[in-house]
Specification:
The chain is mainly beta. It is built from five helices and 28 strands. It has three domains: 95 residues, Immunoglobulin-like, CATH 2.60.40.3780; 102 residues, Immunoglobulin-like; 137 residues, L,D-transpeptidase catalytic domain-like (Beta Barrel), CATH 2.40.440. It is 11% helix and 36% strand. The strands form seven sheets. A five-stranded mixed beta sheet has the order 22-21-20-28-23, with no helix packed on it. It is elongated, with a radius of gyration of 33 Å.
């Protein structure tokens, strides 16, 4: 075996040692230099305003480390809690004082490492550990909907346990609420009111996507005496992209799956005075049978019916459902009190082929546009530019959106 390469390497190092000369070597380290010494214990060189013994620090008060006397200075301070959140701070130019510039996490254990040097440049080090007091007032986010499989129009919701009005606090909360999709999409939160946020992509979710929502609020100071609490994460998936388009003028509904037409059915929609709402709605749920009465919606003409294969699209009682009593008008006239009626067979087919979160879009009706919030999910009726203005992370964000209206939980036919 040829050992020539190994010999050449050793010789090169030896020649380099000779060239450098006595006292130092290129293959070793210098001796006697202050920076090569083991750091001394800097306990006597610094003063820390944190708690001692088993006492806990007030998370609302800043930390401060100062150097004693004129025998040295602080060179660096790093601090983090047990979750790995770093504590921001500022060190004075002369190295005599370091002060935290961000609130501490409540109910956390911190490790702070202080580096110093003496007059001769020798390094010192001291590690400080302490805990902070738990928060008395907590902010928790509850994500929705429940875990499961949904249509591509299903928004993610976050309901806060306490109102958040301040812009800076809203921005902090919004940064901590993370929504991720695989495949990835562009999306944004929208502040519906002080306690409710909705998240949607620029367009619908991709088909067969996995979406997760998590909160990093735990222990973070949101407002005076208000700290974030841990929240249960959410994971949902989407199925095919299913979209039903109801044309009120042609009295028909066409259903698409992943962009391909799969069915067209004759329907009837709302008559004058009870026109069906235009715009994009999202399936809220399905009920095999629902009792619908005229008194529930204040209709003048009396009815009291057991309605089958009812797919709900608004909280105020708009459904897609079986209406065997109006088959003669389906495809020709609008005679309902706002719902989309169809034959029992067509309603059963629709009921079996849509899921919560699928899209139901109404066009060419004389009715108003679907409410954005408060009566289901009208989120998709806002343009992307207007939706983004509901975020606290963008300039031009409103001071607060109108509160969610309380919807009537009454079915209508």
């Amino acid at each position: 075996m040829d050992h020539t390469p190994r010999i050449r390497t050793v010789v090169s190092c030896a020649l380099l040692v000779i060239a450098v000369g006595a006292g130092t070597t290129a293959c070793g380290t210098s001796e006697g230099h202050p920076l090569s010494a083991k750091p001394y214990d800097a306990a006597r060189q610094i003063v820390f305003n944190g708690p001692s013994g088993t006492a806990k620090a007030d998370p609302d008060k800043p930390l401060e480390v100062t150097s004693k006397g004129k025998e040295g200075r602080i060179t660096d301070v790093t601090g983090s809690d047990a979750r790995g959140h770093y504590l921001a701070g500022e060190l004075s130019a002369d190295g005599t004082r370091w002060r935290s510039t961000a609130p501490l996490t409540a109910g956390a254990r911190y490790t702070v490492k202080v580096s110093t040097e003496d007059e001769e440049g020798a390094p010192g080090q001291r590690t400080l550990t302490f805990e902070t007091l738990p928060a008395k007032k907590l902010l928790k986010a509850e994500f929705g909907p429940e875990a499961g499989k949904y249509g591509v129009g299903q928004p993610i919701t976050a309901e806060l346990s306490a109102p958040v009005k301040d812009k800076a606090a809203r921005a902090l909360v919004e940064r901590a609420l993370k929504v991720r999709s695989v495949p990835a999409v562009e999306g944004s939160w929208y502040w519906v009111d002080d306690e409710n946020l909705h998240f949607r992509p620029k367009a619908y979710w991709p088909a067969d996507a996995t979406i997760t929502a998590t909160s990093n609020l735990s222990g973070i100071k949101v407002a005076d005496k208000l700290y974030g609490a841990a929240s249960k994460p959410l994971r949902i998936t989407t199925g095919d992209r299913v979209e039903a388009v109801t044309d009120a003028s042609s009295h028909s509904m066409t259903v698409y799956r992943n962009g391909e037409e799969i069915n067209t059915m004759p329907v009837t929609t709302g008559k004058p005075g009870w026109e069906t709402r235009n715009g994009i709605k999202v399936v809220l749920g399905k009920e095999y049978v629902v009792r619908m009465t005229s008194s529930a919606i204040g209709a003048a003409e009396f009815y009291d019916k057991q309605v089958y294969y009812a797919t709900r699209v608004t909280w105020s009682g708009e459904y897609v459902h079986a209406a065997p009593w109006s088959v003669g008008s389906q495809g020709y006239a609008n005679v309902s009190h706002g719902c989309t009626g169809m034959s029992t067979g067509d309603a059963a087919w629709f009921y079996e082929n849509v899921r919560q979160g699928d899209i139901v879009r109404v066009v060419n009706s004389y009715g108003d546009t679907m409410d954005t919030f408060g009566n289901g999910f009208g989120d998709w009726n806002l343009s992307w530019d207007k939706w983004r203005k509901g975020s606290a992370l963008l300039t031009g964000t409103r001071d607060g959106a109108a509160p969610v209206d309380t919807a009537r939980l009454r079915p209508q036919v």
